[in-house]
């Protein structure tokens, strides 16, 4: 790897300082290094050609902002945790430079992770439809008022249930450690390919969580809601109307994660991160 990009959180002083360390490290080793704020998608896209890996400096939110540019360009991505828990990050800030040495020296492997494609179909039709990309999850949920929404859930051709809840989460295996897990969903091996469907505070619902094949499409129709939103990876909110349909499916092309040789295996990392959570 001779060209590295660094996507960082510009509002985090530690991330800004780590970016300076990263660029200085690259200059000292004749590695072509560049940096852009993680939320600047257009700037990241312009820098991606010939980039061998994108290193994200920040927490999981910063990682999710940068992930789309990496996935579109098929550039491997690596997270350096500067947040609280950081399930998406393989590196802590105090071990940053040795890991850069590893990946530039070829001491790494690549994990392929499934991503999600969402289609918003106004009133169930194709006119005015909109496509969204997610690494972690696509969520249909109530708005700011504490009123449940009524949602029809279908998987493939089958109607599964009409659910009254605060919302429904459709998560990837990578996203199964996020919002879906906090709502009671299972944790999946991140390199598996499945769709996890989990209600948020379901009212008298027999459905707790469903794991569906990646060959299926999950369809959610807004039956009744005072206000409904589509949330993508926790950073993009799109208003929905009654009768709108959201279809979520597995993307064919994966996003590639850099796995440094010294990185902790996922299940050990999970145990370690959970131990850090407040009791």
Name a few traits of the molecule.
279 residues, Tumour Suppressor Smad4, 2 domains, 6 helices
Short description:
The chain has 279 residues and is of the alpha+beta class. The protein has 2 domains: 135 residues, Rossmann fold, CATH 3.40.50.10330; 135 residues, Probable inorganic polyphosphate/atp-NAD kinase, domain 2 (Tumour Suppressor Smad4), CATH 2.60.200.30.
Plain-language structure description:
This protein is of the alpha+beta class and 279 residues long. 22% of the residues lie in helices and 38% in strands. It folds into 2 domains: 3-114 and 254-276, Rossmann fold; 116-250, Probable inorganic polyphosphate/atp-NAD kinase, domain 2 (Tumour Suppressor Smad4, Sandwich), CATH 2.60.200.30. It is built from 6 helices and 19 strands. It has helices at residues 13-28, 41-47, 60-73, 96-104, 179-182, 266-276; strands at residues 3-8, 32-37, 53-58, 77-81, 91-92, 108-113, 116-121, 130-134, 137-142, 149-155, 158-165, 167-171, 195-200, 210-212, 218-224, 228-232, 236-240, 245-250, 255-260.
């Amino acid at each position: 790897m001779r060209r590295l990009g660094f996507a960082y959180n510009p509002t985090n002083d530690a991330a800004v300082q780590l970016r300076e360390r990263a660029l200085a490290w690259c200059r000292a080793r004749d590695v072509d290094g560049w940096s852009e704020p993680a939320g600047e998608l257009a700037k990241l896209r312009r820098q991606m050609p010939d980039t061998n890996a994108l290193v994200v400096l920040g927490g999981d939110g910063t990682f999710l902002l940068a992930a789309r540019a990496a996935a579109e360009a098929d550039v491997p991505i690596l997270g350096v945790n500067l947040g609280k828990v950081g399930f998406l990050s393989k590196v802590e800030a105090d071990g940053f430079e040795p890991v850069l040495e590893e990946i530039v020296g070829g001491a790494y492997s690549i994990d392929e992770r499934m991503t999600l494609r969402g289609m918003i179909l106004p009133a169930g039709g194709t006119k005015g439809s909109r496509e969204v990309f997610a690494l972690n999850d696509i969520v249909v949920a109530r708005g700011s008022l504490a009123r449940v929404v009524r949602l029809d859930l279908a998987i493939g051709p089958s109607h599964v249930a009409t659910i009254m809840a605060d919302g429904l989460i459709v998560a990837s295996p990578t996203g199964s450690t996020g919002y879906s897990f906090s709502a009671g969903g299972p944790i999946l091996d991140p390199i598996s390919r499945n769709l996890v469907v989990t209600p948020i505070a379901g009212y008298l619902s027999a459905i707790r969580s469903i794991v569906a094949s990646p060959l299926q499409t999950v369809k959610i129709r807004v039956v009744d809601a005072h206000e409904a939103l589509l949330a993508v990876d926790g950073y993009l909110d799109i208003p929905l109307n009654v009768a709108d349909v959201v279809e979520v499916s597995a993307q064919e092309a994966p996003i590639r994660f850099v796995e440094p040789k010294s990185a902790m295996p996922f299940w050990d990392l999970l145990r370690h991160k959970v131990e850090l959570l407040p009791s």
